[in-house]
Write a structure and sequence with these properties.
Number of helices: 4
Largest sheet: 4 strands, parallel
Shape: globular
Strand content: 25-35%
Oligomer: single chain
Radius of gyration: 15 Å
Number of strands: 7
Distance between the termini: 36 Å
Order of helices and strands: EHEHEEEHEHE
Length: about 130
């Protein structure tokens, strides 16, 4: 069996909700990381990037990323976006369509990400947060 090296890169720098400031670096950082990870001399990863996608699409891709793997696969998930805590201190990753006053419904909850990682067959997971 071939051991896979896969990366999912999620970056958001544009937001529909005016309460989120526009970020300059996420898309550029994500593109640079993708180049390094794809390079067979450096990373040799199969890379999927999501740039300024809505939260439902990000959640669906994360679920697929962690469920479509084997035990020894090396998985890397990278977020470059606003990280926002709700009034109870729960962390959410902001996507293009995230509304600051509706985080639970429109953000990507860190608890969702953790759940997907915990349910994954892979035992080699790297999570990078640039929030």
């Amino acid at each position: 069996m071939t051991i896979a090296r896969a990366a999912l890169i999620v970056a958001s720098n544009e937001y529909d909700d005016w309460m989120f400031s526009r970020l300059r670096a996420p898309v550029h950082d994500a593109e640079a990381l993708a180049r390094v990870l794809r390079d067979p001399e450096i990373g040799g990863f199969e890379v999927r990037t999501l740039m300024n996608e809505p939260s439902y699409m990000v959640r669906e891709e994360i679920e697929g990323f962690f469920s479509d793997c084997h035990r020894e696969d090396l998985l890397l998930l990278y977020f470059s976006c606003h990280g926002v805590k709700d009034v109870n201190g729960r962390l959410y990753f902001a996507s293009r369509d995230t509304k600051l006053h509706r985080l639970s419904a429109t953000g990507v909850a860190s608890s969702f990400v953790k759940e997907q990682m915990d349910q994954s067959r892979s035992r080699r997971i790297v999570l990078l947060l640039d929030c």
